[in-house]
Structures are given as structure tokens and as C-alpha cells.
Amino acid sequence: MNDDIATMRNSIIYSNKVYAPESIFAGWLSLSYVLLTTSLLFYHMSQVKSIKATPLMSSSIAAALVIVSALYMMYSLGPYIGRMNHVIKICKLDPKCNKNELKRLIIVKNSYITLGIVTSIIQLIITWLIVKKALK
Q1: pLDDT tens for residues 64-82?
Q2: Are 17 and 87 in contact (CB under 8 A)?
Q3: How far apart, in whole angstroms, are the C-alpha atoms of residue 31 and residue 25?
Q4: Are 66 and 127 in contact (CB under 8 A)?
Q5: What is the DSSP letter of 50?
Q6: Contact criterion met (CB below 8 Å) for 25 and 31
């Protein structure tokens, strides 16, 4: 058990070198999700007439918010990839960082990138659906 704790203390995977990029990216994810939720709530409220807005206006505002949300998501991926590539490079150069740790770092990085891309695609599909309905 003590060996496991010592390994965790000395492992790059359990250090701020990894937690910091993940935390920053998670903050951008949260911002993106808040914007998405706000846009969908606004759009729904306008559809059920809780808010008086023309269909074109409400769909334009909702679509703009979703697009901004997707842009935040896509914009945040670049710095995250750069920060994680830096950590991976440090791991490659550190003799204490073994191949399993390096592999885990790469898997984590690729998982978050995939999450960001899939989220952005879903947001753009939502935008397309909102605009398509407004133009009918």
C-alpha cells in the first residue's frame, strides 16, 4: 500500500502537470455547456410563448449562442492539446515516467479531444435544427 502511495506521489499522472490542463479544459467545457443550456432554454421559452419574440429572432439568438458555445469548445481544444503535448514530452524525457504512464497520458488527452469534438458537432447539429425550423 505504501508503495502505491509513493508511486502516486512521484507519478506525473497524479501531478498538477496533468490536473492543471484538465482543470482549465473542464472550465471551458462548463462554459460551453452553460451557453448551450441558456440558448436552448431561451429557445424553448420563446416557443412556448413565455418570452415574446418572433420565431426568426428567437432562433437567431439561440443559434448564435450555440455557435458561440461551439466556438468556445473548439478554441479551448488548441491550448489543451498544447499543454498536454508538453506534459507528454516531459514524461518521455523523464526516466521515472514509464511506458504505461505515457500511454495513459496519451489516452486521457485523446479522450478529452474526442469529447470536445463530439460536443462541438452536436452543438452544430442543434444549431442546424433550430435554423432549419425557423426557415420553414
Answers
A1: 999 999 999 999 999 999 9
A2: yes
A3: 10
A4: yes
A5: S
A6: no
